[in-house]
Amino acid sequence: MRTRLYxxxxxxxxxxxxxxxxxIFAFGRSDPSPPSLRDHxxxxxxxxxxxxxxxxxxxxxxxxxASRTKRACMPEYFGGAAxxxxxxxxxxxxxxxxxxxxxWQVNLNTGAQTDTGRVLAGTDVNKIGPGMIGPGSLAPDGTxxxxxxxxxLFLLQNGACxxxxxxxxxxxxxxxxxxxxxxxxxIVLQYYPRRADGPELWIxxxxxxxxxxxx
Length: 215
Known about the structure:
By secondary structure, this protein is mainly beta. The chain is built from one helix and 16 strands. The longest helix has 27 residues, at about 1-30.
């Protein structure tokens, strides 16, 4: 009888250990992503956005998450992060060759690519303030957005630095500012989650109160 109780105690202890490990692994992983706008559209977020998915297809989406449409796909894309929405039928992408960063136009209906011959300047990333600042970090009104390694999102304006949002991210995996909206009220961020197939796109309001995952 005593042996049975001893065995039962060991098995019970192992079961508790397994449950403890499952709980630690299940709840110890942090997911900093804002709520998915595809699952829960937010009509408070205005405008539209164009981005490339992992198959090099252009996605035309409502920033609110209400709808999205796949446009043309490119057979290959050897470029940087810069993507320009020229008009409803045309996008611009950056491709690098011996000339430097060159702007190519892509027909959003057919996928046809045209070399414009225009070499873009100012594509280097510089270290300024609390985080990395890239070409899309500067808003039309002159405000700069940046992030730090602790997951903070900051605005730099008139010599003042203000934290507007914080994300519970793993160390050395901070989101990067991609661009601002034309009215300087919304910021798009790119973030690479751990064990994911590709990056996420986040949108954050200027005051940091409204956030969502676009894709």
